[in-house]
Amino acid sequence: MSTPAILALEDGSIFKGIGIGAVGETVGEVVFNTAMTGYQEILTDPSYARQIVTLTYPHIGNTGVTAEDEESDNVWAAGLVIRDLPLLESNFRSEQSLADYLKSRNVVAIADIDTRRLTRILREKGAQNGCIITGDAIDEAHALTQAKAFAGLKGMDLAKEVTVKEAYEWTEGSWALGEGHTQPDTSRFHVVAYDYGVKRNILRMLADRGCRLTVVPAQTPASDVLAMNPDGVFLSNGPGDPEPCDYAINAIQEILTTDIPVFGICLGHQLLGLASGAKSVKMKFGHHGANHPVETIAENTVMITSQNHGFALDESTLPDNLEMTHRSLFDKSLQGIQRTDKAAFSFQGHPEASPGPHDCAPLFDQFIENMNKRKS
Ligand SMILES: NC(=O)CC[C@H](N)C(=O)O
């Protein structure tokens, strides 16, 4: 017997399907992601906190789940919406089915709904707050009330909620077939990484390039970071609105008074922009996928990128010492910045991919190059 489930949107739309995860109720901002693979990395990306993720690719779960592929310790997405859960998973690395994984992590998820209809609503009206209820006691009116009652992500500071409680060291490298996670030589640079909701693959790609990382909680004062005498400071991705994160903006401003190289990804990119005097805006439905073309303006080249954001820096607010380096070729929005007076730059998409194409990996090399220049 399948478990009944519904998804209600704040605009009044109701979708009926089956529950494939935990029995219960969840609310959040409903977004759609067009990546064909990487559902486990998406679910465990802390940037998805308070968001219900709809995957537009119709078959989700085919390759099961594998502990090594987690991007953090938890499933952070508030819920999952898919078209079809395959009857069987098949992959030599699979340890569990997606449905069992969702149940064991207490994640509410709905399948067998028309995800194309849902995606059209999100594209036309913008990201919608929503509520999924699964189980035998489904109350449509209650689901609608819950969807409408969700405050929305604008103004929500979630970085301080998902961040690590205590600082820790990270030296593990990328995964290799037959080897698992590698142990690269990380003695070249010491990087302090602000954890606003960091994905592990970012830390791994920095470790691959010779960095030993000290990952610190989001609210760590800049003075503590500077006291560690780092070769570089990394600003991580993370959930929610960057604007209310004043502790982060203040800390970044203080770090920018030194000549220490800074690199930011996604939320970290937005925070570098805010700390430099730019403003951020909430996008209509954001960018969530693994096939987004982005222009590298100086080179007139295109990278195919992984994306996951609902806020963006507003190009028209960039101060004189902030140069726009990248632009989305889907909607022309700002994708990268560089300080003209500092070795500080950042990227809106996800150069660590996981999931996604590897075109942006050279951005990590640029950070290494900046640290190298300062050291030598
Ligand atoms: N992946 C991220 O870091 C997302 C940044 C921010 N929470 C946004 O939605 O725009």
From TrEMBL:
Keyword check for Ligase: yes
Location of the active site: 266 (nucleophile), 350, 352
GO biological process terms, semicolon-separated: 'de novo' pyrimidine nucleobase biosynthetic process; 'de novo' UMP biosynthetic process; glutamine metabolic process; L-arginine biosynthetic process
Pathway named in the protein's UniProt entry: Amino-acid biosynthesis; L-arginine biosynthesis; carbamoyl phosphate from bicarbonate: step 1/1; Pyrimidine metabolism; UMP biosynthesis via de novo pathway; (S)-dihydroorotate from bicarbonate: step 1/3
Family annotation (InterPro entries): Anth_synth/Amidotransfase (IPR050472), CarbamoylP_synth_ssu (IPR006274), CarbamoylP_synth_ssu_N (IPR002474), CarbP_synth_ssu_N_sf (IPR036480), Class_I_gatase-like (IPR029062), CPSase_GATase1 (IPR035686), GATASE (IPR017926)
Protein function: Small subunit of the glutamine-dependent carbamoyl phosphate synthetase (CPSase). CPSase catalyzes the formation of carbamoyl phosphate from the ammonia moiety of glutamine, carbonate, and phosphate donated by ATP, constituting the first step of 2 biosynthetic pathways, one leading to arginine and/or urea and the other to pyrimidine nucleotides. The small subunit (glutamine amidotransferase) binds and cleaves glutamine to supply the large subunit with the substrate ammonia.
Designated name of the protein: Carbamoyl phosphate synthase small chain
Origin organism lineage: Bacteria, Pseudomonadati, Pseudomonadota, Gammaproteobacteria, Oceanospirillales
Gene from which the chain derives: carA
